[in-house]
Design a protein that fits this description.
The chain is an alpha+beta fold. About 45% of the residues lie in helices and about 15% in strands. Strand 3 and strand 4 form a beta hairpin.
């Protein structure tokens, strides 16, 4: 699609506006760049959490496992 205009031109946030809705610019995005890192972070977080559950004593496991996982 041919963009109507470019918003934030000359900056790192430069985006093409393809169409508007009620005068508000709508920017088409590719969400694969935001979903894949979240899925990978959740996978590695689960692996790290299971490792901490094995190491940390039961008395302090409730608050130390989430703290160290983050």
């Amino acid at each position: 699609m041919e963009p109507l205009y470019t918003i934030f031109s000359g900056t790192i946030l430069q985006s093409n506006v393809v169409f508007t809705f009620l005068g508000i610019p709508v920017i088409l995005m590719d969400y694969s760049s935001s979903v894949i890192p979240i899925v990978l972070a959740a996978y590695f977080g689960a692996k790290i959490e299971s490792g901490f559950k094995k190491i940390i004593p039961d008395v302090v496991k409730v608050f130390l496992v989430p703290f160290f996982t983050l």
